[in-house]
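I am still getting used to backbone structure tokens and would like to learn alongside you. To get us started, please write out a protein record for me. Start from the sequence, derive the backbone structure tokens from it, and show both lines together. Once you have written the record down, we can walk along the chain together:
***
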Amino acid sequence: MSEQSGRTTASLDEVLKSFEGHRRELCAYAYRMLGSSFEAEDAVQEAFTRAWKSYDSFEGRSSVRSWLYKITTNVCLDMLDGPQRRARPMDLNGPSTPESPLPMPEPDYVWVEPIPNALAFGADPAEHASTKDTLRLAFVAAVQHLPATQRAILIMREVLRFSANETADMLVMSPASVNSALQRARATMSKVQPETTKTFDETDEQQRKLVDDFVKAFESYNMDALTTLLKADVALAMPPFSLWVSGPENVATFMLGTGQACRDSRLVPLEGANGLPAFGHYKPSGEPGVWIPWSITVLELDDGKVSGLNFFLDTEKLFPLFGLAPEWREQ
């Protein structure tokens, strides 16, 4: 009996280990589907639980990877059973004037959230490079416009490169239905997705310099230097507020007015979010030498300029997710 139990335990350990090898790619998939890193983690954990419970019925007709994607897809579709879709402020309304008062914050389920690179990318640099663009905030927000099943089909076919037959098997559809839904999804994406910009490359010296120059200008609160780094149609957004502003001069006016609490901030570099440069943003606490959480700040770059300033203000949730301390002290 003990020998049988030992074999069962060993087998269980092997099964769970085989699941874990797919966690990051499944988390990235669920994030694209759901627009929330927290919901993505929950979805993958639920998928592993369902897979573990039904492993005895898995007969190996497909790979473990495909089987886990099928289960994760079902979990995500269950979670998306409703009209709510996550968005960015610029998806909900036009730009505000920089003097506009801040509106009331919206609930967290309204917004596309950032995801740490460490949750979404594996150790393979080639896989990292090939999928980074589809984790951009703009892509994830655009995908949210699709009905849930079309969303899954687009990601499976065009991001993960599953065949029409594999996708049909996962969704219990015919390949013809998958191809038809893919065409509709592509048509919608062509209308709502911004033009693809150059992916951030950590090894690109010019891009690294742009990010370094931004940090220097922002921390010194030099608006003249800052505006020279911004693209003409740069957008500044601060979820959970729906307000956003566009254009370098408007960004500067906002930062010197409503956003002046950012003066004397500190930007602590992160390994990245959504394949983009990101920082733990701390603001002055009022106590000399001590800064407190303000935002997860994610930069979007395009054509040698900063095209997007994203300040995610839900630090109570996001700072632990990114492994950040609850305060920053002068070194």
Notes: Residues 2-192 form one domain. The radius of gyration is 22 Å. The CA atoms of residues 40 and 110 lie 15 Å apart. Strands lie at 230-237, 244-246, 266-269, 278-284, 290-302, 305-312, 328-329.
